[in-house]
Every structure is written in C-alpha cells, then in structure tokens.
Amino acid sequence: MILLLCGCGSWTNTGLNPSPFRLSANATPIKQIQKPQSQEVTVYIQGKVEKIAPLMQRRAYQINDGTGKIWVISQQKNLQIGQEAVFKGKVKYQSIPLAGQDYGEVYLAE
Prior knowledge:
- The chain has no helices and 8 strands.
- It is mainly β.
- The protein has one domain.
- Strand 6 and strand 7 form a beta hairpin.
C-alpha cells in the first residue's frame, strides 16, 4: 500500500536549516495540493523528510512542510530523516476502496 501512496523527483538543499522552517517562494504548500483532475499537474514542494520507505529501485519519502504531509516517490536514495529537500513532481491520486469507502491519497510522482 505504501507503494501507492508516494511520488516525485528531488534535489536536496545543502544550506543551513533555518528555524522555524520557511517555504521557498516557488514551493506549493502541501495543504494546497488536492486530488488532480488530470495527471498533468506539476508542483514543487519543500519540506523535511519524516519517514522513508524503500521500494524497488526507488524510495518513498514522507515530507512535512509545516502545512501538511505528503508521500513522494523518488529515484534518490540518499536522503535521511530530518533532512530538508525540494521535490518537483506530478500530483497523483491512488484510490484505495475498502468496505464501500475510498481511502485514497494524493502523492507526488517523479
């Protein structure tokens, strides 16, 4: 199920981690990312890695920007928990129907 809840390409920010965390001008706040009407919505997000899930030839990272959390699927395998990163990805939605209800989730794909 984690495979379905993650996505995106990224590069890391090697600068100092300011406190409190501030979004760059180009980043979309995670709380504003919604279920896409098409698969062509591309966004930039910036946040800290909270969880990592290894996948076949990829990694899934849960990113928190202070406004919300989202899973990101990335080719990068070198990010660590607590590290700040910037991702560019397409907004995706995976439906997970259980007992007549949809427990799907939005994620970013590289």
